[in-house]
Specification:
Layout: H1 2-18, H2 28-40, E1 45-50, E2 55-56, E3 59-60, H3 67-72, E4 78-82, H4 91-111, E5 114-118, H5 141-144, H6 151-165, E6 178-181, H7 200-217, E7 223-227, H8 236-239, E8 251-255, H9 268-285, E9 288-294, H10 304-313, E10 322-325, H11 346-354, E11 358-359
Parallel strand pairs: 1-4, 1-10, 1-11, 4-5, 5-6, 6-7, 7-8, 8-9, 9-10
Antiparallel strand pairs: 2-3
Length: 369
């Protein structure tokens, strides 16, 4: 009997370890968000939009505004920001950017919404920004890893991010949790950290150092760490090719525009299969899963939300915490991924909003408790 009890206790401890965050010192609010996202993903999915409250189609900087709210009456549940402006610029510009981002994150947190962070990180070893440009860009992952020529510079960049993470205090005095998603779409070659410009070993070394330095040296305890390639995998083995290990990742995801209507091409069967790989790995490893980026530019398909996206999300018992569509550019007449009043998919998006499966900011109940 005693051996049976010990076996059960061991099994329970293994389950607890498998579903635990990688930061044992995570703030109570961050730990609660992690648990609540896991629970919500069993029956629902949260809707997200990049830069939703910073700007939208034809406007910028308006208080309490988002194109999603203009159409549905609610902000997205998940709002994307970017740490792009926190390096590679003069100090005064970085400070100004950080303050604007801080206000955005705190406002989202005070409303009960969730922030996710992309990082279009300017190459720290060359010109060329975050995109790889032949003849200009340097393969910098090997240079910023421990022992590399630009490692100390990278530590200073991470210090700026840590300072920001320590600054986002809500009205109750607690720090706003953020889902931090560095080095995304690494299986493509368009970014300087992409597969063609860095070895698997260097990519993993930089990932592990980034998490370790932020968490263990700089005391950042309000991040949930998300790993998300683009859609170039067709098996779990390929998905995990550059995976740094379960002890270094909280959430697994995928960015996928190509299977969902880009250039008029749809392959929903392939899209579902890839999401299934992500979802099943998360369940097996005790991680969160998410559809970290998708969308259809200009949304010319008037039923895209219910006939393409929602049908995909409801397929095959997927457990995904959120789906995020890309930004609505303030000036471009065509670069937008969420509807605004009068846009051709507006009515269908309202149906998507009202579906019990989807959750927006107004639907969230104490996700930090």
């Amino acid at each position: 009997m005693k051996s049976l009890v010990m076996s059960l206790l061991t099994a329970l401890l293994c389950i607890a370890a498998a579903t635990a965050q990688i930061d044992p010192k995570a703030t109570p609010e961050t730990a609660a968000l992690y648990r609540n996202l896991k629970k919500l993903s069993e029956q629902h999915i949260l809707f997200g939009h990049q830069h939703a409250t910073e700007y939208g189609h034809g406007w910028s900087g308006d208080a309490e505004r988002s194109d999603v709210k203009s159409v549905t009456g609610s902000h997205p549940a998940v709002i994307g920001i970017d740490f792009m402006g926190l390096s590679g610029r003069p100090a005064e510009e970085i400070a100004k950017t950080a303050e604007a981002l801080r206000k955005n994150v705190v406002a989202t947190y005070n409303r009960g919404g969730i922030t996710t962070v992309a990082w279009h990180f300017a190459n720290p070893a060359s010109e060329g920004g975050f995109y790889w440009k032949d003849g200009v860009s340097k393969p910098a992952m090997a240079l910023i890893k421990p022992g590399g020529s630009h490692h100390e510079q990278y530590k200073l960049i991470l210090k700026t991010i840590a300072d920001f993470a320590h600054s986002v205090k809500g009205k109750d005095g607690t720090l706003a949790p953020m889902i931090f998603r560095p080095y995304h779409e690494f299986d493509g070659d368009w970014f300087w950290w992409g597969k063609g410009h860095t070895s698997k070993e260097d990519f993993i070394a930089v990932w592990r150092f980034t998490v370790s330095y932020l968490r263990d040296q700089l005391g950042v305890h309000n991040f949930i760490y998300a790993f998300s390639p683009d859609n170039k995998f067709t098996s779990e083995y390929e998905f995990l090719e550059r995976y740094p290990g379960n002890e270094w990742v909280d959430m697994v995801g995928m960015d996928n525009y190509g299977d969902f209507g880009r250039d008029g091409k749809y392959n929903l069967e392939a899209g579902v299969k890839k999401l299934k790989i992500v979802s099943e790995y998360a369940l097996k490893a005790g991680k969160l899963a998410a559809f970290t980026e998708t969308g259809l530019e200009s949304i010319p398909n008037p039923a895209w939300w219910t006939e393409t996206l929602l049908k995909t999300l409801k397929a095959d018992k997927l457990q995904l915490a959120y789906v995020l569509v890309w930004r609505n550019d303030t000036k471009s007449p065509t670069h937008y991924y969420a509807p605004f009043p009068g846009q051709v998919s507006e009515a269908d998006f309202v149906k998507f909003y009202h579906d019990p499966y989807t959750l927006f900011e107004k639907d969230l109940k104490e996700v930090y408790k």
